[in-house]
Amino acid sequence: MLRYLTVPVTPYQQNCSLLWCDQTMKTAVLDPGGDLERVLAQVARAGLVLDQIWLTHGHIDHAGGAAELALRFGLPIIGPHQADQFLIDGLALQGKMFGFAHVQTFTPTRWLNDGDTVKLGHSTLTVRHCPGHTPGHVVFYSSEANRAFVGDVLFAGSIGRTDLPQGDHDTLIASITQRLWPMGNDTVFVPGHGPESTFGIERRSNPYVRDT
Question: One GO molecular function term (predicted)?
Fold first, then answer.
């Protein structure tokens, strides 16, 4: 069974998630934006085995620690979609602009496309390409755990920003309504910032995407 633990990191309180297969303890670090020692302390405390890095998109608060973590532990970096390459190429510059130390650029081991799957021990998750916040944003969905890890596409009561480079409001709304809602109202989603919610709650109450 897939398990997970959310660890807020960086001054942006970005939700870095540890996902693991409870049979093998193989673990993916989802969106390691920074504060790696805090993340690694949770890995050690839970007895997890680092196996992969997964990225939803290329903004620094989500991807800023990926290269360092990959180099320290020999981990592959999986995702996001290749349309975010321009953001990853600019990570070092982003680091200088926003006060993130030791940020390095990298080339993901594997880019992800809509409909791909990623495997973690005995658990398999589906990938959905959900552009709008960034052009290469992806979401990871586990049907067995009834969880979706949505990065900055959707938040409890809000949606991702679209005023950043290559963001687009209409595209983001389409990603939410066409690619997230079909996962089911009972699906719990883990956003890139803030508390968890369900798609059903957001369809009823989120002023940006509620059903009319």
Answer: metal ion binding
Please return the burial class of 107, using the count of CB atoms within 10 Å of its CB with bins 0-12, 13-18 and 19+.
Answer: exposed
Determine the 3-state secondary structure of 12 from DSSP. Answer: coil
pLDDT band at 39 (very low <50, low <70, confident <90, very high): very high
Least Cα distance to 9 among 32, 25, 28, 29 occurs for 32
The per-residue pLDDT for range 47-73, each reduced to its tens digit, is 999 999 999 999 999 999 999 999 999
Distances (CA, A) of 74 to 31, 50, 120: 17, 9, 16
Burial class (CB in 10 A: 0-12, 13-18, 19+), 174: middle
Cis before 80 (ω within 30): yes
Beta-sheet pairing, 2-9 with 49-54: unpaired
pTM strictly above 0.90:
yes
Give 102-113 pLDDT, tens digit per residue.
899 999 999 999
Domain ranges across the chain: 2-205
114 three-class SS:
coil
Task: Look at the domain 2-205 and name its fold.
Answer: Metallo-beta-lactamase; Chain A (3.60.15)
